[in-house]
Amino acid sequence: MYWCNTKKLLAAIACGLYFIFILPACKPAIKQNASLKYFDVKGFFSRDSARLTKLNPLIFKSVYHNGGTESKKVHIDNWGTELGLFSGSDINRPAWVNSYNVITEGNIIIYKAKSPQLATREILIKQVKGKVEYMLIYNHTKNLLYTNDEELSYFPDSLYQINKVQSVRLLGTNKYQIKGFFNQR
């Protein structure tokens, strides 16, 4: 009788180990270094957020909301959150592989959405010798409950700006503007 309980215990342990170690290995492989069709917006802002966190620059930040403005000099605690709208405008999702027209004009690359259902409508990136000089992003979302328009501007080590107009049915319109100026002493 004792060996019967031991047998059940060993079977339960083996089953548990199977679920812990073997089953997760059955997931489809995720390509880590797959080439991206479009500029890596998410990766760029992830790297720049890490760089800015390390530098910890003093920023003159101005926030406008429906007519009221507040400004002060600050050190940003979390650059990933601060630039979240920018990195959230990533267009390299597998389902969108052929969803953007790519136009090159000198040092400027323009990505334009082919479908009005895509939230990120347009991205303009100016690069000189592989370095981003500036990035402009236009997002638009519309559904039965709200309309959201965003203009995002990023000039590394100089300025970032977020202009947002959000109209919510029954609640009205909110206008936001956030500006951050770098190298403020």
Number of strands: 9
Mean pLDDT: 85
Q: Write the H/E string, N to C.
A: HHEEHHEEEEEEE
Let me know the largest β-sheet.
Answer: 9 strands, antiparallel
Strand neighbour order, sheet with most strands:
2-1-9-8-7-6-5-4-3
Q: Classify the beta-strand content into a percent band.
A: 35-45%
Tertiary shape: globular
Helix proportion of residues, in percent? 10-25%
Alpha carbon gap, first and last residue = 79 Å
Account of the 3D structure:
By secondary structure, the protein is of the alpha+beta class. It has one domain (39-181). Helices cover 24% and strands 43% of the residues. The protein has 4 helices and 9 strands. The protein has helices spanning 2-22, 41-55, 79-82, 84-87, and strands at 58-65, 68-75, 100-105, 108-113, 120-128, 131-142, 146-155, 159-168, 172-181. The protein has a 9-stranded antiparallel β-sheet, with no helix packed on it. The chain starts with a helix and ends with a strand. 15% of the residues are buried.
Structure keywords:
single chain, 185 residues, alpha+beta, nine-stranded antiparallel beta sheet, 4 helices, 24% helix, globular
Topology:
Elements lengths: L1 H21 L18 H15 L2 E8 L2 E8 L3 H4 L1 H4 L12 E6 L2 E6 L6 E9 L2 E12 L3 E10 L3 E10 L3 E10 L4
Antiparallel strand pairs: 1-2, 1-9, 3-4, 4-5, 5-6, 6-7, 7-8, 8-9
